[in-house]
Amino acid sequence: MADGASTAAGGAPHADSGFTLVRSGDHGTQQLDWDKGPEHVRKALGEALGARNVAFLLGAGCSSMMKDGTERGIATMAPLAAEFCGAAGAAAGGPAWALDASDLSCLAGHGLTLAGDYTRNLERLMETLHALRFVLSRSDDAGDVDEVATIDGMIAKIQAFLWERCTAGAFASGDDQVLGLYESFYRRLVLRDRSLPRPWIFTTNYDLFSERAMDRLGLPYANGFSGVVERRFNPATFRYALAEQLDISNRKWSAVDGFVYLCKLHGSISWTEDDHGLFPIRETWPQTAPSKVMIFPTPAKQNSSLGSPYSDLFREFQSRIVREQSVLITMGYAFGDEHLNNIIYQALTIPTFRLIVFADPGSGGDIAKLRALADPRIWIIGGSGPPDGAPAHYFSTIVEHLLPRRPSDRIDDAVKLVLQTMAAGSAAAAVPTDDD
């Protein structure tokens, strides 16, 4: 789960009145206003989406939406870490996943406190706990056995906390604002010419926003699972395509519009595992306990991605973006997963590959390194958002302002406005007056 809400940490500043498009590093930086800038970006993205092979990488930032001081979706790593650490030592009646006094005492006995990096990144805390467990489990001191059990309990609490945040919240209680953004995003994908290969959506998120959005839109998709009553993971389904028969006598077929390949690189809250031979990964819902096949933020995350089904999923990611004439567009992803970054960097060795990153151009880390390459194939788009709107690199702004739009979108907006006006008129007519 990479935090997509990056903060400025160096690089060239960008104007408060607009946003930034970086091409060829600082030499190709353009400052765009919110009057004509979005149309310029939509045109550039429209050309990029015309490439033969198109893939998207959606990170944790896509499922987060802060509105009116309330998280409507699933918070990114920094807020999650702050919440988890802030609840530690809570009085009786607090959340079941909160670290208690015995947990804090165990940490203090090894000179550790929930401060510093731990309050910003749960992955750092998990790294420490796993390392501590590794050392203590190999100790000859009989007293360390109890400490190993305590550490196992703390790791389980972090997993339970992440599970709760991925399955409960405003989005699980009827708030469809985040789901609506995903629906708008997938509507844009039907722009793609049916003669070109279908787009691929890769995501590190555990949530079901993508699946629910496509279900609501009636878009068919392949997610690596086959079956109806018992849906099991079978990577062969990624080789399948969906087509409609145009002429029965001549067996003519045409690809179905809107078909999407969805690949969840870190697993899903709807996945579980059993002992069913060749296909042990099942897709079920609802789940009542943390999924056994989610890659939680741990120091072994990169090694976990080498096992099944993740080896199949990462193989798909690599094979799709290293093809000729490929474009990868990242959203809500801050390049915090080394195992994904390595694949992306390998793809950059292919001359026809293009990388479009929605992120704050002033960010540090790997995004700053990508900018420093001054490579015309690397675009970085982000910065200040429209008046009273989210930053340009946030998923809501990307979907609402920067992605190419279909000609019919304006008609859809007009119809929606008519329906809203009619509903408002009906409601006003239903209000009784003194004359009634």
User: What is the total domain count?
Assistant: 2
Tell me the major beta sheet.
Answer: 9 strands, mixed
The helical percent reads 25-40%
Mean pLDDT: 85
The unreliable regions are 1-15, 301-306
Count of β-strands: 17
Query: Given the C-alpha coordinates, what overall shape results?
Result: globular
- Computed structural class: alpha/beta
Residues in β-strands, percent: 15-25%
Strand order of the largest sheet: 2-1-17-16-15-3-6-12-7
Question: Radius of gyration in whole Å, from Cα?
Answer: 24 Å
Quick recap of the structure?
The protein has 13 helices and 17 strands.
Describe this protein's structure.
With 436 residues, the protein is α/β, with parallel strands linked by helices. The protein has two domains: 18-70 and 175-415, no CATH class; 74-168, no CATH class. The protein contains 13 helices and 17 strands. Helix 6 (177-188) crosses helix 7 (209-217). The longest helix has 24 residues, at 144-167. The protein starts with 17 loop residues before the first strand and ends in a 6-residue tail after the last helix. 37% of the residues are buried. The model is unreliable at 1-15 and 301-306 (pLDDT under 50).
